[in-house]
Every structure is written in structure tokens, then in C-alpha cells.
Amino acid sequence: MADTHKPVRIGVYPGTFDPITLGHLDIIRRGAHLVDRLVVGVTTNPAKEPMFTVAERLEMVKREIADVPGDVTVVDFNSLLMDFAEREGASLILRGLRAVADFEYEYQMAGMNQQLNDRIETVFLMADVSLQPIASRLVKEIARYGGAIDKFVTPAVARDVARHLAQAS
Ligand code: ADP
């Protein structure tokens, strides 16, 4: 009799999401099709000096993915990416690629991660052409100088950024 037991394919999509952009959301939507379960990992790495706390970013990402079809969950992590992926039972790490600048960093990181654990593959999705220039860092910079960020993030995230800047000033 054929073995009908199919292993569940789990992927993790790690990032800082400070804040989550339309580019991230596109990768999450597309990535969710590739796996049975996608775990979005919000890094707590304080070295990045994020605008939003981990709790705020977790809440923001959870809210933003609420209507994404498929099994998508959001958790925070504070460990080596490979240990996080292993803990989640993932066989795949999802990353988005925008430009050549991303490639160099991502290529090196994927190579080192493979040396740490060769059972987990890093899979890259090319950024959607229209969303390719979007970076959280630039979104924050534009907002700080009073520019409009509504082409880069959802209205709710734009409100979060505005609220944060108003509190900080
Ligand atoms: P990290 O600090 O890990 O780079 P980010 O939140 O900046 O965290 O990015 C998480 C992932 O999303 C990375 O793989 C990054 O390349 C990808 N990404 C960021 N912006 C976009 C975008 N506009 N389109 C596609 N992928 C993106």
C-alpha cells in the first residue's frame, strides 16, 4: 500500500521588519504558496537599533498578514537563524532579493548558514519589479523628513510610523 503520509514542508522567513513593507508582504504571500507552513521570524537583534520594539513589530506583522492565504504564523527569535529554523522544523529559509547589493550579503550568509546546517536550504525570491526599491531603512528615512510613505507600506503601518515619530519628537 502506498505511503500516504506526506511530510509537512515548513519554511521560515526571517527579518527585522522595522517596519514591515509591501515588499516583505509580497515575499510572504508568494512564499506561503511554496510551503505547507510559513513561519515569519521577527529578529530581536538589538544591534540593528530598530525604530519599533520586538513586541510592536510582532503585533504589526501579525496584523498585516491576517488576510494572507495559507498557514502563516509569526514568532520572534533571538538565536542563530539555523537554530531557529531547526527548532521550527523548517527545511527551507526564505529570503527576498532586491538588488546586487542584497545579493552579496545574502550569498555570503547563505554560504555560511549552509556550513552550519546543510539540511536546510536557503531559497531566494526575486523582489517584485514594482516593489524592488522598497527598504525599511529608506521608509524610515523618508518619514523622518516628512515624506509620504504610503506607496511603500500599508496605511496602518504608515500610521504606526507617524505615531512613533510624533511621540519621539
Ligand atoms: P534583515 O535585517 O534580515 O535584512 P529585513 O526586514 O530588512 O531584515 O529583510 C528581510 C528579508 O526581506 C530580506 O531577505 C530582504 O532582502 C527581504 N526584503 C526586504 N525588502 C524587500 C523588498 N522590497 N522586496 C523583496 N524582498 C525584500
Brief rundown of the structure:
The chain is of the alpha/beta class. The protein is about 40% helix and about 20% strand.
Secondary structure elements and their pairing?
Elements: E1 10-15, H1 22-34, E2 37-43, H2 54-64, E3 71-77, H3 81-87, E4 92-97, H4 100-116, E5 121-126, H5 136-144, H6 155-168
The structure holds adenosine-5'-diphosphate.
Structure description:
By secondary structure, this protein is α/β, with parallel strands linked by helices. It has one domain: Rossmann fold, CATH 3.40.50. It has helices at residues 22-34, 54-64, 81-87, 100-116, 136-144, 155-168, and strands at residues 10-15, 37-43, 71-77, 92-97, 121-126. A five-stranded parallel sheet has the order 3-2-1-4-5, sandwiched between helices. The longest helix is centred in the middle third of the chain and has 17 residues, at 100-116. The radius of gyration is 17 Å and the shape is globular. The protein binds adenosine-5'-diphosphate (ADP). Adenosine-5'-diphosphate binds next to strand 1, helix 1 and strand 4.
Enumerate how many helices there are, as a single number: 6
Reading off the top of the CATH hierarchy, the class is best stated as Alpha Beta
Name the CATH homologous superfamily. HUPs
Low-confidence stretches: none
**Helical residue percent band:** 40-55%
What fraction of the residues are assigned to beta strands by DSSP?
15-25%
Nearest-integer average pLDDT: 94
Over all CA atoms, what is the radius of gyration? 17 Å
What structural class do you assign from the helix and strand content? alpha/beta
Annotated CATH architecture: 3-Layer(aba) Sandwich
| Strands, total number | 5
